[in-house]
Amino acid sequence: MPSALKAPPPRPGEANGGVTSADRAKEAGITVVDWVDERTSLSGATRWILFRKVPKGTNWFYTLGSATLFAFLSQAVTGVFLAMFYRPDAAGGAYESIRNITDNVFLGQFVRGMHLWGASVMVVLVFLHMARTFLWGAYKYPRELNWVIGVVLLILTLVMALTGYLLPFDQRAYWATVVANNITATGPLIGPYLGDFLRGGPEFGATTLSRFYSIHMLLVPGLIAALIGAHLYLVTKLGTTAPPWLKPDEPSTLSEAEV
Amino acid sequence: MADKHKHKSKYTADRGIPGAFEGETVTRRRFMTGSANVAGIVAAGAFTLPALAFALGPIFKEEPHRWETIGLVGDFPENNYVSVVVTITTGVGEVGKTTAYVRRRNPAIDTDRYDLKTPYIAISSRCAHVGCPVRWVDAAERFVCPCHGGVYDLLGRRVSGPPQRPLDRFPTRVRGEYVHLYTGRFSVNSQLRRFSPRDPGEPLDGIGQYLYPSRPSVRKP
Known about the structure:
- Helices cover 65% and strands 0% of the residues of chain A.
- Chain A is an all-alpha fold.
- Chain A has a domain at 59-238: Cytochrome Bc1 Complex, Chain C, CATH 1.20.810.
- The longest helix of chain A is centred in the last third of the chain and has 33 residues, at 206-238.
């Protein structure tokens, strides 16, 4: 052991030498945390976010939002690794790159499966979370804005589902997107222009795939992450709602002894 | 009263603002704030507007089309369709191809005045409901869509199912012994009147042609 790490010899009068290296290691950790906290005041924010008061009756239904968040994080992480192998090439490269992920890449089928099934899981969880909020009446004052943000997040999640569906670029993906695009174009007056915007032109072409890919992996994930931040800020700021079956406590009458 | 009037003077010096210059109407602090805001807006616009124009550009860009040889004049009968595969969008392989059903114009049934100029009738296989590929069923003399059950007759007019208008068509011409097909579609309404191409699902009868206007990216061929 280097001499610097050795415990100093016991001072006269001290029983057992004082500071051990375990104590020093502990001290080092605390020092690092203190250093960061002194410069950021993060401990206050952490306490504010994590150690909130929650209402009586909070139960497992209150975890649906966190479950959706983790579904999103799972999609983000698996999506990043899929993007390392995916090629948005409409002339056949996209389909081949997906086949390469499924057949050749180590754990590729597993990661792609997580992303594929995770997408459905996320949509289902979003709706369950929304149903919980609706049935509990948790959208009411002062939480209306959080409901609105949540609805925007729902729409963005569905945009992710739609744009992601095209990327495997097999027959099902292609025709589903053709149909979705044409349904978009049936909106009166602006529909035809929206259709052109989504396709990147009047016909399905090379730009359609790269457009969908860019929307799927750059534009919408950023928006979702930012809005999740706002959503969580409002949750911590406003707190959660008690279940509707819990009635507020009767105002306690003072007993004779208390007076 | 006099004080209030004095306070409203356009000169900062008259308003009693510290450090005011003679003849100055806007304080330097206010001017600086305004300049910083304007600079920020200009800087943000400098990258937002080009990016927006870049994303919206395809709406206004016309898709290029060309004449494609699809066969010899003798290849196509009058009362039945022959399928040909044409490339609508180049450079994207199979995705850019589509099927057209072609027959020679039959003066007995193709009586519409718009058909007189077209020697061959070329029907697009893109269903007018939501764009699935229809196929020609010879025995029934019908176009049938596999997705939602749209059915069209020999002229491409809707017989049953959800489609809002007849099947789109391609212009054709004859050059020597060859039949050419123009890869830009045109749409027709239930009277087979020609319109600039519309996306599927957009009706062209009555108010439909105004609710679903023609787009700059496609023109009537």
